[in-house]
Amino acid sequence: SHLRDPASSLSVFGRVSPAKNVYLWNSIIRALSQNGLFPKALEFYGKLRESKVTPDKFTFPPVVKACAGLFDENMGNFVYKQILELGFESDLYIANALVDMYSRMGLLGRARQVFDEMPVRDLVSWNSLISGYSSHGYYEEALELYHELRNSWIVPDSFTVSSVLPAFGNLLVVKEGQGLHGFALKSGFDSVVVVNNG
């Protein structure tokens, strides 16, 4: 269920017996995480584990998002260990959440490791790591990854452009920056207003 109202989710959750129903647990954890109630989402994840319910692949993206939202590295590592134990590390949505979490925390070596081990990547995968590198000042790495992306079958979007612009500006890669600007205009991303005049 895509319940946007955590109070409704908690009400439904309280009226039924969720003990062994992972779907109900996932619904409440997702609703809490989507609404930024990260401590509560992790609390319910803990209750799920206490009730001996085995998490499934849908349990983890909102749990990882909650860890990222709280910058809780220890909990993030604990959850990652469980993901590995259950064999879910190759799931695209879980891996994307992990790359995003580690990137936000500035743990870019871990983020890159998860990224490199992904059997399949989508634009979210690339954007999370490029943004992580760029926002933490690793401009050369951001540019290198951007070039890898451009050589893949995946087409960058406005988020990619806004994430990599600081790298061009800070490294004074003027000619390439002009090429990126041309790509952005040609692709209809001319509304991207994040420009570094450095």
TrEMBL record:
The lineage of its organism: Eukaryota, Viridiplantae, Streptophyta, Embryophyta, Tracheophyta. PPR repeats lie at residues 21-55, 91-121, 122-156. One of its GO terms (biological process) is RNA modification. One of its GO terms (molecular function) is RNA binding. InterPro entries: PPR_At4g14850-like_plant, PPR_rpt, TPR-like_helical_dom_sf. This is Pentatricopeptide repeat-containing protein. Keywords: Repeat. Pfam families: PPR, PPR_2. Coiled coil: none annotated. It comes from Noccaea caerulescens (Alpine penny-cress).
